[in-house]
Amino acid sequence: MSRVFSMIQPSGRLGIGHYLGAIRHWEVLQAQEHDCLFAIANLHAITVPQATAELKQHSLDLVAFYLACGIDPEQTTIFMQSDVKHHAELAWILSCITSLGELNRMTQFKDKSQNTKRERIGAGLLFYPALMAADILLYQTNLVPVGSDQKQHIEMTRDLAIRFNQTFGETFVVPEPYIADTGSRIMALGDPMKKMSKSDQDSNNYIALEDSGRLIQKKIMRAVTDSLNSFCYNPEQQKGLANLIDLYAACSHEDVESIVARYSGGGYGQFKKDLAQMVSGRVEEIYANYERYRRDTAYLKEVLAQGAINANGIADQTLAVVHERVGLLL
Ligand code: AMP
Ligand code: TRP
């Protein structure tokens, strides 16, 4: 049985990218009876400014979202990152074997800091990958299911695990990323050159969890395609259409070839209609579950309390070994 670990930041609106890129796979791995832990990355969220009350709300929103997508607290550990103090401590220890060069090369850091003067960039934003490595390594994780934007961070996690093991002796499992072929990078509906993101200025570019069925249908019908009017999967020349086919494949669990075979010869209209109906149906279903869970704050807190007990138990064991290896125990 493999250990599976992943997290999402409670930093705002939830979108279909989170579901298709990450949580959809969590559910599959959970059903395969892996030992799963899924957490709320609130320590990561504060690497950019967050309003106190909103951070609390968004953290509970995310727990409700996990449950609504089928993550089952009876089978899986769901917890808040800040409820396990070991994350911050291991991040510190790992940062001591991490170079500034490695941190500077991370594309997410470059993206998130590009509009800020270098002197003003928060150190937490730069250190973020060391915290992420700590999250993963604390639980002796085998598999990390994420969207493809996280690949570089996981490679760095692997490097740190190998470096630590070589320096101090075998301590950490070296984790593997789990990134699906389709749906691991859903692009913006109006601009298929950039990632679909809930923080996009133009709300037509993303599908949010709280979007109504009608709004989702409208957004998909006006999504950018091309004027070739030839139904092919061609990410080079028909990026917009390829993105919609990816969306279809991820939602329906079908492969790209059979979708193309079904729609080839026709225009894009019917395909878009079918896609819109499928996506809106799935989102509405998740949203209805979400609202039900979100009303019961006491239950969400109970799930987190139990999750924190499980997670602390595992993290205690790993950190005791780390202390011993590094020489922090006398
Ligand atoms: P974040 O909001 O950055 O914490 O992202 C949470 C998870 O959702 C990560 O595994 C991301 O890779 C994934 N994700 C976010 N946006 C997308 C997207 N547009 N396509 C695929 N996966 C995504
Ligand atoms: N960096 C991830 C993101 O932005 C969130 C995250 C933090 C994470 N720690 C993690 C994902 C550990 C997987 C494993 O999406």
UniProtKB/TrEMBL annotation:
<feature type="binding site">
    <location>
        <begin position="147"/>
        <end position="149"/>
    </location>
    <ligand>
        <name>ATP</name>
    </ligand>
</feature>
<dbReference type="InterPro" id="IPR024109">
    <property type="entry name" value="Trp-tRNA-ligase_bac-type"/>
</dbReference>
<comment type="function">
    <text>Catalyzes the attachment of tryptophan to tRNA(Trp).</text>
</comment>
<dbReference type="Pfam" id="PF00579">
    <property type="entry name" value="tRNA-synt_1b"/>
</dbReference>
<feature type="binding site">
    <location>
        <begin position="195"/>
        <end position="199"/>
    </location>
    <ligand>
        <name>ATP</name>
    </ligand>
</feature>
<protein>
    <recommendedName>
        <fullName>Tryptophan--tRNA ligase</fullName>
        <ecNumber>6.1.1.2</ecNumber>
    </recommendedName>
</protein>
<dbReference type="GO" id="GO:0004830">
    <property type="term" value="F:tryptophan-tRNA ligase activity"/>
</dbReference>
<comment type="similarity">
    <text>Belongs to the class-I aminoacyl-tRNA synthetase family.</text>
</comment>
<feature type="binding site">
    <location>
        <begin position="9"/>
        <end position="11"/>
    </location>
    <ligand>
        <name>ATP</name>
    </ligand>
</feature>
<keyword id="KW-0030">Aminoacyl-tRNA synthetase</keyword>
<comment type="subunit">
    <text>Homodimer.</text>
</comment>
<keyword id="KW-0547">Nucleotide-binding</keyword>
<feature type="binding site">
    <location>
        <position position="135"/>
    </location>
    <ligand>
        <name>L-tryptophan</name>
    </ligand>
</feature>
<feature type="binding site">
    <location>
        <begin position="17"/>
        <end position="18"/>
    </location>
    <ligand>
        <name>ATP</name>
    </ligand>
</feature>
<keyword id="KW-0067">ATP-binding</keyword>
<dbReference type="InterPro" id="IPR050203">
    <property type="entry name" value="Trp-tRNA_synthetase"/>
</dbReference>
<keyword id="KW-0436">Ligase</keyword>
<keyword id="KW-0648">Protein biosynthesis</keyword>
<dbReference type="InterPro" id="IPR014729">
    <property type="entry name" value="Rossmann-like_a/b/a_fold"/>
</dbReference>
<dbReference type="InterPro" id="IPR002305">
    <property type="entry name" value="aa-tRNA-synth_Ic"/>
</dbReference>
<keyword id="KW-0963">Cytoplasm</keyword>
<dbReference type="InterPro" id="IPR002306">
    <property type="entry name" value="Trp-tRNA-ligase"/>
</dbReference>
<feature type="short sequence motif" description="'KMSKS' region">
    <location>
        <begin position="195"/>
        <end position="199"/>
    </location>
</feature>
<feature type="binding site">
    <location>
        <position position="186"/>
    </location>
    <ligand>
        <name>ATP</name>
    </ligand>
</feature>
